[in-house]
User: Which sequence fits this backbone?
C-alpha cells in the first residue's frame, strides 16, 4: 500500500494519566526553564533545551546518547494554555517536513490526562523509533513531576 | 523513447537543478557518507543540508541507511539512468545534425574546383615565347 507522504505519513499516539494537576503539567511543558530540566527520553542525556514558547517560536533540544549528539529542532504552531501545545519536529541531520507533534492536556481534577500525537513521520522505522522515544520521555516526565522534581 | 509524463523524471531534474545537490551527488559517487561529512564542504547549516538530502531521497537518487541513530547516505543509480535515457533521445538528434552538416560540406567540396590548382596556374610563369 502506497502512503502519500505529503498528506498522511505515519502516526503514533502516546497517552498517560499524570498524577499532578493540569496547570502544573502545563507549566512543565511550556516554560523553557522547566523544559530544560527533563525534556528527553530516559536513556539519554539532555544537554540543553532552548525554546521560545510562542506561536512561530523555535526550539532546540540537544540530546546526547552513547552513539553521539542528536539535535531536535522545530517551531511552535499552537499554544492553548492548559489545553494543547503543537509544534513541528525534526532533526538537524534528518529533515521531516510534515512532522508535527500535538500534546493535549485534559484536566481531571487532581490528575491530568496527557495525550501526545506525532504525525507526518516519513516511514515506519521513524514511527517505531519515535514511539520508543516519546514513550520513554513521557514516562520520565510523569515520574519527575509526580515526585515534584520539576520546578 | 522514454515517455515525457513522468513524475520520476520531474523529481530527478528538480533534484539536479541545484548546485549544492549536484555537489552532494558528486561526493556520494566516491562512496557512502554520513550527513555531517556531506555538510562539511558547504558553508551551510545541518538542517539546510538535511533538507537538500530530503529532496534527493524523494527523487530516489540517494538512499538512507540507518545504523541505530547514525544515518549514512548512498547514491542510487536508477533515476539518473532514466534521466540519461531521456537526454539520449536528443543526443541522436544532435549527432544526426552533425552528420548531415558533415555530408553537406563534403558535397560542397566535390562540386568546386580545387583551390590549390587555380593558385598554381595563376603563379605559373609562361617562359615560352
Assistant:
Amino acid at each position: 500500500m502506497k502512503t502519500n507522504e505529503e498528506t498522511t505519513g505515519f502516526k503514533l499516539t502516546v497517552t498517560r494519566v499524570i498524577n499532578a494537576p493540569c496547570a502544573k503539567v502545563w507549566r512543565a511543558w511550556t516554560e523553557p526553564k522547566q523544559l530544560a530540566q527533563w525534556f528527553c527520553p530516559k536513556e539519554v542525556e539532555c544537554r540543553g533545551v532552548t525554546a521560545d514558547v510562542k506561536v512561530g517560536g523555535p526550539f532546540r533540544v540537544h540530546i546526547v546518547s552513547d552513539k553521539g549528539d542528536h539535535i531536535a529542532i522545530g517551531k511552535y504552531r499552537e499554544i492553548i494554555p492548559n489545553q494543547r501545545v503543537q509544534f513541528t519536529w525534526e532533526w538537524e541531520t534528518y529533515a521531516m517536513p510534515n512532522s508535527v507533534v500535538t500534546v493535549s492536556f485534559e484536566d481531571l481534577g487532581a490528575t491530568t490526562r496527557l495525550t501526545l500525537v506525532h504525525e507526518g513521520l516519513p516511514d515506519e522505522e521513524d514511527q517505531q523509533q519515535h514511539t520508543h522515544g516519546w514513550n520513554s520521555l513521557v514516562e520520565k516526565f510523569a515520574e519527575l513531576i509526580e515526585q515534584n522534581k520539576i520546578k | 523513447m522514454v515517455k515525457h509524463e513522468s513524475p520520476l523524471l520531474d523529481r530527478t531534474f528538480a533534484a539536479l537543478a541545484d548546485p549544492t545537490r549536484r555537489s552532494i551527488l558528486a561526493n556520494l559517487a566516491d562512496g557512502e557518507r554520513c550527513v555531517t561529512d556531506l555538510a562539511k564542504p558547504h558553508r551551510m547549516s545541518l538542517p539546510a543540508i538535511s533538507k537538500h538530502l530530503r529532496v534527493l531521497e524523494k527523487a530516489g537518487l540517494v538512499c538512507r541507511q540507518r545504523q541505530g541513530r547514525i544515518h549514512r547516505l548512498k547514491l542510487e543509480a536508477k533515476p539518473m539512468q532514466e534521466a540519461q535515457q531521456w537526454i539520449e533521445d536528443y543526443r541522436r538528434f544532435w549527432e544526426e545534425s552533425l552528420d548531415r552538416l558533415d555530408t553537406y560540406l563534403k558535397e560542397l567540396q566535390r562540386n568546386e574546383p580545387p583551390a590549390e590548382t587555380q593558385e598554381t596556374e595563376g603563379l605559373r610563369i609562361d617562359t615560352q615565347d
Notes: The radius of gyration of chain A is 15 Å.
